[in-house]
């Protein structure tokens, strides 16, 4: 059973920064592509960022966060990160990390492609 636990959410003013972490159990972390998604109240869950398997040499971002957010991974710690800079009120949402065991198929952006999910961490950006 793969378990994902997010941390690092909180309340921040617009223009501020937060770093989210997602710790993943199991010995196959490096073989998963890892993604971050978010869901605002009344909206569907949306893709934020994804990082490739193993060394994480490839990343892909939603247009809304490109240039402001950075996804990274540390396979020695079984952890994926999301550094969020220049936060905006519209970034307010619950943020989820997710694992795609079929990561070798490419960087996928659909929530249905991910098999394992964390419980989410709240990010609130005040104006």
Task: Please provide a written account of the structure.
With 127 residues, this protein is mainly β. The chain is built from no helices and eleven strands. The strands form two sheets. Strands 2, 4, 5, 6, 9, 10 and 11 form a seven-stranded mixed β-sheet that branches. A four-stranded antiparallel β-sheet has the order 1-3-8-7, with no helix packed on it.
Please tell me what the overall shape is.
Answer: globular
What is the succession of H and E elements?
EEEEEEEEEEE
Sheet with the most strands, sense and barrel status: 7 strands, mixed
Q: Roughly what fraction of the amino acids lie in strands?
A: over 45%
The residue fraction in helices comes out at under 10%
- Counting DSSP H or I runs of 4 or more residues, the number of helices is 0
Rounded Rg: 13 Å
The total strand number stands at 11
Q: Ranges with pLDDT <50 over ≥5 residues?
A: none
In angstroms, what separates the terminal alpha carbons?
A: 40 Å
Assembly type of the chains comes to single chain
Mean pLDDT across residues: 95
Structural class: mainly beta
Task: Jot down its keywords.
single chain, 127 residues, mainly beta, seven-stranded mixed β-sheet, four-stranded antiparallel β-sheet, 0% helix
């Amino acid at each position: 059973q793969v378990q994902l636990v997010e941390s690092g959410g909180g309340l921040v003013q617009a223009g501020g920064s937060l770093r989210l972490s997602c710790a993943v159990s199991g010995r196959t972390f490096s073989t998963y592509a890892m993604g971050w998604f978010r869901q605002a109240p009344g909206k569907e869950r949306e893709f934020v960022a994804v990082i490739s398997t193993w060394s994480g040499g490839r990343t892909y971002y939603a247009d809304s966060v490109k240039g402001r957010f950075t996804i990274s991974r540390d396979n020695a710690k079984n952890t994926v990160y999301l550094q969020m800079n220049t936060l905006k009120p519209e970034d307010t949402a619950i943020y989820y990390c997710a694992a795609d065991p079929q990561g070798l198929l490419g960087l996928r952006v659909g929530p249905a492609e991910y098999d394992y999910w964390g419980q989410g961490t709240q990010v609130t950006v005040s104006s």
